[in-house]
Design goal:
This protein is α+β, with helices and mostly antiparallel strands and about 775 residues long. The chain folds into 3 domains: about 65-160 and about 210-265 and about 270-300, Aldehyde oxidase/xanthine dehydrogenase, a/b hammerhead (Aldehyde Oxidoreductase, domain 3); about 305-445 and about 450-485 and about 625-775, 2-Layer Sandwich (Aldehyde Oxidoreductase, domain 4); about 490-620, Aldehyde oxidase/xanthine dehydrogenase, molybdopterin binding domain (Aldehyde Oxidoreductase, domain 4, 2-Layer Sandwich), CATH 3.30.365. It is built from 16 helices and 32 strands. It is globular. InterPro entries: Ald_Oxase/Xan_DH_a/b, Ald_Oxase/Xan_DH_a/b_sf, Ald_Oxase/xanthine_DH-like, AldOxase/xan_DH_MoCoBD1, AldOxase/xan_DH_MoCoBD2, AldOxase/xan_DH_Mopterin-bd_sf.
């Protein structure tokens, strides 16, 4: 994509030479433009038109003959003992077909994607606000809601544990205890000290993934006594297995069909939402639909871990890091979910993409009676990035060194060793990224005139005096890991079938907005020279592909599609190679034609197919990793991705209002597979990071969620999004990754909040140690007299 095209969407992307990304199936376009098909092309998503025209079939649009409606009764208390549950009034209501509680769960009463510790319905104790107590199926949604409200539950309200620091000494909130995991990382000499020491205490708020569409689904009973669940799952096979265990059924009698995913930045659906649906369908023998309200969505699904971080950085007189000491405390809420994995990322990346000879990190994840925390894009890494970059700003100020220069002196590179003892073997162009954003021209200052007052913090009529506005420039450098970590068995399976010039890809990798369906089409176009490629809908009748997290579908599922397509390519070319007495390696496919190296053979793919149907199935499994040991050491990660961001902000130092003017981004992408899609992913990640920095915080009062709606929870809008300038994409391929590509959207989310906080420090001189940044943290009190 050219820079002019990118500017039209307020994002600039450097012109990408098609050759830099390797030859594409369609070849370069006219006048040296990027290719029109295959890898390196800006192929549009297949569902773009349906979504823009409003015809995309979201899960909330599902319908079935004889449909019943479901509603879930949720706890109004964050911590309480259940003394009794009386469903008689609900059962007696006209139109009510079924009411289920914990007594009606025929199989396992607990579930969990990672740790099985969460009840389908609370039975003895309520551990968080909004925990499910019962579910109702009725012939009308209003009837279902009224029936759920008619269920009488007698509670003994208990004192909630909402401070994670107090969870260590509190009475156990769960049979497994309050401590989920403790990681003590020990690296280097504990007696090492630096000439300069800075300390800091940082707090990160509870960011909600806030999916575009709230949770919805449909469960349909099957004649064999099983059930089919239609929902926007991001990990259908895991959801199927969890549901089947709770239903007391074999997994092959439960089918999950993925439908209408509107986008996901974490675990799209709470499995506890799908399980009541299936129970009601099995109980009534009718299709049952549940469309959660926005309030129920906020109460049910997982959020980013609120985190408390204490840091001490040691450096020498030249600003080179000597030792980092840190304590990291993650608030997991009531259940474990992804807390162990999040803590591992937080501890491993606690020093950031910097060379640190000595590191001593203590990390804990604890249960509280706060809302449940789980997987949200960049979990663990985002929280520590905000803290260690705050420390780098403090060091720069104390030493009188330019903040960007201080970071450059400590930048990590390939061959360096992480505090976990793992050698960085993948490309790590941290210094190159930082130099790119530092050297990018700064934006112009707004004019001090009435027609430009919308450029000031607060917008028209909302800004204070222009003379109170200060501009700040700050930096953030972040890192994330690719794929699962600590021994996770990553594997995906894909089938490619070609018939009559049309290719079909069958893979259970869910398209969540990350672009996998588009990538799969491009891979097949590249390898087989077939323009028309379809990606089959996802369900659990297909082999598993795993969750849509950590860029794994680009790597693992994309790698499986590539291997299957290459196997089909061999089937296609072998007869021709045999006929002409040459190996298949001497034949190439481009622009729908098959040619030999010497030009003797030239035919079309269609002619070579000759009406045959070719297909192949393949798997991709990256090299294994290992868990962190008792000292936080181990090769826990398959690979790493890096990003540098320079933020420019304007701050009204009297009102504390903040406007992000520009975000300059340089990113380590490995290889650009789809320029337009990549630019969109980076822009979206930056915007989500700005939300975490300035507005997004799901607030609680003694464990109760306050304002669980999109008026109380402030998402950034198009008016809040700044100019996003993608100033450099480093295409240094990771040799162990298919195509050499790296994840695109998580690392901007991780890095952007730290950069915004750094810029506000620059503008105000205030410490800014809490995210999101509150107005009072940006106010500069004028000296008296």
């Amino acid at each position: 994509m050219s820079g002019d095209a990118a500017n039209a969407t307020s994002t600039t992307l450097p012109r990408i030479d098609a050759a830099a990304g390797g030859p594409a199936g369609g070849g370069p376009g006219p006048d040296g433009e990027p290719p029109l098909t295959g890898l390196g092309a800006s192929l549009p998503a297949a569902d773009t038109r349906a979504k823009s025209e409003g015809t995309f079939p979201y899960a909330a649009d599902l319908w079935a003959e004889g449909l019943l409606w479901a509603s879930v009764l949720r706890s109004p208390h964050p911590h309480a003992r259940i003394l009794s549950i009386d469903t008689s009034a609900a059962v007696a209501m006209p139109g009510v077909r079924a009411v289920v509680t914990h007594e009606d769960v025929p199989g396992d009463s607990n579930y969990g994607r990672r740790v099985v510790d969460r009840p389908v319905f609370a039975s003895e104790l309520v551990r968080h606000h909004g925990e499910p107590i019962a579910a109702v199926a009725a012939d009308h949604p209003d009837t279902a809601r009224l029936a759920a409200a008619a269920i009488a539950v007698e509670y003994e309200v208990l004192e909630p544990v909402t401070d994670p620091e107090k969870a260590f000494a509190a009475e156990p909130l769960h049979p497994d205890g309050n401590l989920i995991r403790h990681i003590p990382l020990r690296y280097g000499d504990p007696e090492a000290t630096g000439e300069v020491v800075v300390e800091g205490l940082y707090r990160i708020g509870r960011q909600d993934p806030a999916p575009i569409g709230a949770e919805a689904g449909l469960a349909v009973p099957r004649p064999d006594g099983g059930v089919e669940i239609y929902t926007a799952s991001t990990d259908p096979h895991t959801d199927r297995d969890l549901a089947a265990a709770c239903f007391g059924l074999e997994p092959d009698r439960v089918k999950v069909v993925v439908t209408g995913v509107p986008g996901a930045t974490g675990d799209r659906e709470d499995p506890g939402f799908q399980i009541p649906l299936g129970l009601l369908a099995l109980r009534t023998g009718c299709p049952v639909k549940l469309a959660a309200t926005r309030e129920e969505s906020f109460l049910g699904h997982a959020h980013r871990h609120p985190t408390l971080l204490r840091y001490r950085h040691h450096a020498d007189a030249d600003g080179r890091l000597v030792k980092v000491e840190a304590q990291i405390l993650l608030d997991a809420g009531a259940y474990a979910d992804a807390s162990s994995e999040s803590l591992a990322a937080a501890v491993a990346f606690a020093c950031g993409p910097y060379v640190v000879p000595h590191a001593f990190i203590e990390g804990w994840a604890v249960r509280t009676n706060n809302p449940p925390s789980g997987h949200v894009r960049g979990e663990g890494a985002m929280q520590v990035c905000a803290a260690y970059e705050g420390q780098m700003d403090k060091l720069a100020a104390k030493l009188g060194i330019d903040p960007a220069e201080l970071r450059l002196r400590n930048a990590l590179s390939t061959g360096d060793i992480l505090p976990t003892g793992q050698t960085v073997t993948c490309p790590a162009p941290v210094a190159e990224l930082l130099q790119a954003v530092r050297d990018h021209p700064l934006p112009a200052l707004p004019k001090d005139s009435p027609e430009d007052d919308w450029l000031l913090p607060g917008g028209p009529e909302g800004a204070g005096e222009p003379g109170a506005v200060r501009r700040g420039v700050g930096y953030g450098v972040g890192m994330v890991h690719m794929l699962g970590a600590e021994g996770t068995d990553e594997v995906s399976t894909a089938t490619v079938r070609v018939h009559d010039g049309v290719a079909t890809v069958i893979c259970a990798a869910v398209e969540t907005g990350q672009g996998f369906s588009t990538l799969a089409r491009q891979i097949v176009q590249e390898i087989l020279g077939v323009d028309e490629v379809h990606v089959a809908p996802v369900d659990t009748d297909q082999p598993p592909a795993g969750p849509a997290t950590h860029g794994r579908h680009t790597w693992v599922s994309g790698g499986a599609v590539e291997r299957a397509a290459k196997m089909v390519r061999t089937q296609l070319l072998q007869p021709l190679a045999h006929k002409f007495g040459m190996s298949t390696e001497l034949l190439q496919i481009a622009d729908g034609k098959i040619t030999s190296y010497d030009g003797v053979l030239s035919t079309t793919v269609m002619e070579a197919m000759d009406g045959k149907e070719l297909w192949a199935t393949a798997q991709c499994r990256p090299h294994p990793t290992e868990p962190l040991d008792e000292s936080g050491q181990g090769d826990a990660f398959v690979g790493l991705a890096f990003c540098a961001v320079r933020a420019v902000v304007d701050v009204d130092i009297e009102l504390g209002s903040i406007r992000v003017v520009e975000m300059a981004v340089a990113q380590d992408v490995g290889r650009v597979l789809n320029p337009a899609q990549l630019a969109t992913r980076i822009e979206a990640g930056i915007t989500q990071g700005i939300g975490a920095a300035l507005t997004e915080n799901l607030r609680t009062a003694r464990g109760l969620i306050r304002h669980p709606d999109l008026t109380g929870y402030a998402l950034p809008t198009s008016l809040d999004a700044p100019d996003i300038r993608i100033v450099k994409l480093v295409e240094e391929r990771d040799v162990v990754a298919p195509f050499g590509a790296k994840p695109a959207s998580a690392v901007p989310v991780v890095t952007a909040p730290a950069a915004v906080a750094s810029a506000v420090r620059s503008a105000t001189g205030r410490p800014v140690n809490r995210l999101p940044i509150r107005p009072q943290a940006a106010v500069v009190t004028a000296p008296k007299g």
